[in-house]
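Quick bug: Transcriptional regulator RutR of pyrimidine catabolism (TetR family) output formatted oddly.
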Amino acid sequence: MPENKPRTRIQKRNSETILDAALDVFSRNGFRGATLDQIAKEAGLSKPNLLYYFPSKVAIHRGLIDTLMANWLDPLREIDADGEPVEEIVAYVLRKLDMAREYPRESRLFANEIVQGAPNIMDKIEDELKTLVDEKAAVITQWIDTGHLRPTDPYHLIFSIWATTQHYADFDAQIRAIITPVGETHFDDARLFLDTMYRRMLTP
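Here's what came back:
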């Protein structure tokens, strides 16, 4: 869509409809498995109409990834070096679990991209994400060195938090098949479990 003209309300709505439809398609099929035809059908638009707003599948995917990365990193940014260490990390765990609960499609979109080798976001991983993880790993190391946390590898701690929270979005079908929860009750149970586990693991 031309960038030099202000968008009308209908154009804004159609752009949002396309991105929402693409999120469904990409989160189910990954980047390689998704097609513009699928996205157009999901959005209820013709393919030529879709291409008026976004010139390619890559442009749609990149738009979703840019928004996702900004939102996905916010909980990690919120870890406060001046806060109480165990509380800061447990709060991060619970924020990540809340995101898995509230944004499962976004989590699966990210997971699919990583499984395929991160071809469209490797630049962001190697730059923005790595920089932030290095910064927070240094904070965790300082907390360990001052005796406020039980010794642990800060990078593997962060990786474990990603694994134990995003699992509830990325492997939702498996979880529901095994424990058949009523509604979203398993998230409440997971919240209690993860809170207890990380407190016991990290408290000196």
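Actually, after a second look the formatting is fine. The chain has ten helices and no strands. Closing.
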